[in-house]
Amino acid sequence: MRNLLSVKNLKKVYKYKNKTIEAVRGISFEVNQGEIIAFLGPNGAGKTTTIKSICGLVLPTSGEINVCGYSPKKEPHKVAKKLGVILEGNRNILWKLDVVENIEYFAMRRGIGKKEAKKIAYELTEKLNLKDKIGIPTERLSRGMQQKVALGASLAHKPQLLLLDEPTLGLDYEASQFIVEYIKKLKYENKGILITTHQLDIAEKVADRILIIDKGKIIIDKNLDILKKEFQKKKLMISFEHNDLDLVKNKLSMYKNKYVLNADKKEIEIYFNDSIEIYEIIEILKPLKISKIHTHTPNLEEIFISIRGR
Ligand SMILES: Nc1ncnc2c1ncn2[C@@H]1O[C@H](COP(=O)(O)OP(=O)(O)OP(=O)(O)O)[C@@H](O)[C@H]1O
């Protein structure tokens, strides 16, 4: 798998009036071909600063960034040819131009000839389902359509690495779904994609790997399936042949903070630290006629909440 982006020990300190803000505090990560990474974190965690540093829009305080072999600081034009970017708020499109003109314009700006740029523009317009919007200035399109235009513009020069900052922000279900499916297809064109979002369901649908940043530091960098498995281990659901959960309550008096009773489903959810503890709990509950023990696969939202809770 070829490496498309490497970020090493990136730091960014903003100075504003008398204040210094450590927005990014020494982060390192990589993006490879055919990989979609969800870059998650609370407001102000440092996501946009990182993305802007990769694009060369923010000058890092220290650290190294390498995009397909080039440095954003020393070789910005070469980096621009390899990178497709959607920044928050669609700033990479021209509002008076229609979809074809936008894509054509951005393709030519990245060095593609006029004839080829036109061809790409029509192809992408078709793929993005925007053919019937040709001739309409982008400012007159809906938010979802504008976002498709932005995606088209970011793909105009066939970049290898895509940085998408909140690509589905403010979009309805259908438009978000379209963008998600489109992004997934790009992975099979061997592109590498870094996507920031606060919509954890979107991250879960699209990502192979989860990168979580908090207060300028990476706290998680893991494959989504592995992350789910790790968190899965910590919770078990146990149901009984009867629905007398008071019996269960009495038996578990020693483990008061470890379980939640789920009366309508006749089951308990047990949170445990290690296999010894869960073995002990099961031994205690055995006489109450357990009918089923099953694990729960957490969704990304549950994982995120539990990481933040730590
Ligand atoms: N130009 C700037 N000057 C001063 N401080 C800044 C500047 N840009 C960002 N910051 C600060 O840097 C920190 C990180 O901001 P950043 O926009 O990178 O976070 P984020 O993770 O993208 O947040 P959000 O999810 O809200 O978009 C914040 O404390 C922010 O106020």
Q: What's the CATH class of the largest domain, please?
A: Alpha Beta
Beta strand count = 13
Please trace the helix and strand order, writing H or E for each element.
Answer: EEEHEHEHHHEHEHEEHEHEEHEH
Radius of gyration: 24 Å
Into which percent range does the helicity of residues fall?
25-40%
Strand order of the largest sheet: 5-6-7-3-8-9
Number of domains: 2
Beta content comes to 25-35%
Task: Tell the overall outline.
Answer: elongated
Largest sheet: 6 strands, mixed
Low-confidence stretches: none
Could you say what the CATH topology of the largest domain is called?
A: Rossmann fold
GO molecular function: ATP binding
Protein name: ABC transporter ATP-binding protein
Keywords: ATP-binding, Nucleotide-binding, Transport
InterPro entries: AAA+_ATPase, ABC_transporter-like_ATP-bd, ABC_transporter_ATP-binding, P-loop_NTPase
